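Sharing a chain and its predicted structure for anyone who wants a worked example. Both blocks are below, sequence first, tokens second.
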Amino acid sequence: MPANYIHDADALPLFLQKRMFRKWEKRVDKIADYVLNGKSGRMEKFNPLMTLLFSKSIEKQYLRGELNPDIDKNFWADDKCNGCGICVKVCPVSNIEMVDDRPVWQHHCEKCLTCIQWCPKEAIQFKDVTLKRKRYHHPDVKLSDMLKRSE
């Protein structure tokens, strides 16, 4: 995925995202064939340095308590929040309720960050690290798709 974990990094530039998707498009049919037909094969090798760095990052988050179910205590809505409720509608685990036109997290968060990424006002934040970071949207997914999924 092209850096959709906003609390760790800013979204990648669009040209890099497009490059990643072009590479994926070349492999997706083969992968789908393996899955649909129960085939087995060799697992792709990952860059060992990147795997090590990623696992160290996850370990640090775990030790800081950032992977706990109450992780959503670090989410908040800034003054740009207009109370539209889109965060409630796109949350896949129904973890957000609107109270006095403000989102309130219910502490069973899966940390998918959908609420942050899809807030049209970019009002939802994680601690203070997301204040100036770009939001990521897959180029083939629209807000209307996300809202249909939630119905």
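Comments welcome. The chain is about 40% helix and 10% strand.
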